[in-house]
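fwd from M.: "can u put these together and see what the complex looks like"

so here's what she sent:
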Amino acid sequence: MAIDIKAPMPGIIMEILVDEGYTVRRDDELLILEAMKMENPIRSPEDGVVKTILVRKKDFVDTDQIIMSLE
Amino acid sequence: MKEKKKDVDLDEIRPDLAETIERHRLTLDEARPEAVKKRHERNQRTIRENIADLLDPTGSIEYGSLALAAQRQRIPMDELMKKTPADGLIAEVGSVNGDLFGQQKSRCMVLGYDYTVLAGTQGWFNHKKKDRMLKLAYKWRIPVVLFAEGGGGRPGDVDMTDIVVAGLDFMSFTLFARLSGLVPLVGVVSGRCFAGNAALLGCCDVIIATKDSNIGMAGPAMIEGGGLGVFAPEDVGPISIQSPNGVVDIVAEDDADAVAKAKWYLSYFQGDMPTWDCADQRHLRHVVPANRRRAYNVRRAIEILADSKSVLELRPEFGIGIVTALVRIEGKPFGLMANNTFHLAGAIDSDGADKASRFVQLCDAFDLPVIVLIDTPGFMVGPEAEKTAQVRHFGRIFLNAANADIPVFSVVLRRGYGLGAMAVAGGSFHNSDFIVSWPTGEFGGMGLEGAVRLGFKKELEAIDDPEEREKRFEELVGLYYERGKAVNMASCLEIDNVIDPADTRRWIMQGLRSQPERRLRTTKKRPNIDGW
């Protein structure tokens, strides 16, 4: 089952901490989203494998934009 | 005198008593298997099941259970007795959590609409019953739990059609609203709650609703009547709307959970827990990340700080920049507010301000001391934000804080900047009974970058080389940051101290013990708790 990771708020992708194919555990940090001068770690909601990463470092994302999907 | 006394047969039921017993039997679930079955098929409990679960098993009494719908002109009495028991509103007086808080503090009145009777609508006699009860509630100053499921006004009560036109002179809503701020008003919703039922609900201090319920100021019939189209009840005010918009304070899984949450909520207004424990407080030293720009989960700080399993969050999906919760420390109840750095980096917006303001009113009305965990860059800024009328919404925080009479204990976890930090600290740092900072604390009269831009405008403009200018800018921001560190702030006595996070509970408890004894209130402290 695929899980879409969405941006919880508008901001800039500061860091991507995983690659496609990585195995992640629930609560692992996937990437850092900077908004309002604050670094927000986006965590994995479930155990899984990173299927696709749809953003790159420094990309601007909007609320609810899909940034990554897990399997 | 000479007459020989006959032995009384104590098992004998005379016809007069038998009639009474029979009339009561008809009002119980046992006499209405079809109605009960329908309820259970919908995964709901009957109102009597809910009330039996809410009230302590010892000795509640029921008022007005023999009422029937005012439809004698069109429905035979025996059918009315079967179909409209108690006229669809159960009114009982008993206790909740009596085992924990004793008889006096656990007193509770319950008003529960019965959806199996004419869809929980508000009829002539159940209004009359409710008015009677609400007058008693005012006189006794007894908390009220309202089970608000139901369809609003009942047009089918025909018995008074010659003498009642609109019935807008009924006092129910006024009497209910008048209790606000005097006693806790707890609203519970399961199923559908529309119109008049929702009007009562909207006056409650807290709204607890099951996740599949619907709440609206009008149901499908009135919406269609208003020419707005045809809707199913499920389309109107589902919880996916009513929780994020701030109407519902607590979402429950089902009826049983809703009742459990109502008991839990009430407990904070009933007294101290005799026993408690808490997490190892040294965990608090690691809640705020070492990286000062990193957001973190403030709910974790709350969970560690408060007694184990004592956190009841209100409106978790609304105004998410500020977390509001009822908590206990060493068994004593407190209100707690905290900035959430995951939302706008902790900046306070209009929804967050409204949420905080109403929460302060709730705590003030019932003398709950307030703990504030501060980490905010201040009030939200920008042309978009101003569209939300934030000038007035932020004013509400100052107005409510300045005019509340409760202890405020402020703890700065990290950023204490500007008007926003002042506002949540009770309107001013020195309007807090204490304001202390964790070592991670940093302070400023406004955001540092903005302060440098304003304060050093000319100096910066005089530097021609953009790189040099940027360097000087960063240097000045760094200088301000050093100056605003918690220890420096404390050295100038703008905060009362910098503390080991693990000591926070000790500060709060001594802060509480330093207060003079509160006299038991017999009157309202404030006119009401605002609906918003």
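replying to her w this: The radius of gyration of chain A is 11 Å.
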